[in-house]
Amino acid sequence: MRRTLSSKSFSTQKPPVGKENRDNKALDDLYGDIDAGFQAMELYTPVVLSKTHANHATETVTITAPFDLTVLDVYVVKTTAIADNNGINKLQVKNAAGSAISDEISIRTTVVGAIVRAASYTVANANVDKAADIQITFTRAHANDDNAATVYLSCIRR
Fold this sequence. Notes:
The chain has one helix at residues 28-35, and strands at 46-53, 59-64, 69-78, 90-94, 105-106, 115-117, 127-128, 133-139, 149-157. The chain is mainly beta. The protein folds into 2 domains: 1-41, no CATH class; 45-157, Sandwich (Jelly Rolls), CATH 2.60.120. Strands 1, 3, 6, 7 and 9 form a 5-stranded antiparallel beta sheet that branches. Strands 2-8-4-5 form a 4-stranded antiparallel beta sheet, with no helix packed on it.
């Protein structure tokens, strides 16, 4: 079934009084289209969340979800040149319940700016509710190792 847009959002006509966005412009026509089954792109825009982690012992840090979202990808940028001498410095991203979203990501590299991606992630655990904490667990094996990095989460609103 083909649908026709009923809105006049792109015409020079002034919109009627009604629901307003942040610029106080009426969006009745757009809301009518959404009610008719069209999806507004702004509701499904990609979002990147990040957390920078200094060189610390094993710890869990959190990112609070600003809205309901689905994590699509996890990647890490190494921020210091000190290597992991034992190959066991890693991090893992988990949802608020502690279920793994990503696999354990090894951050054994001496290259500042090196990008490491999760090899896999669990789709069933990737949905995160608004205000829920996304957990990032950093593991450092030895005091002279360095696990400093910035973690990026590519997400989409849901």
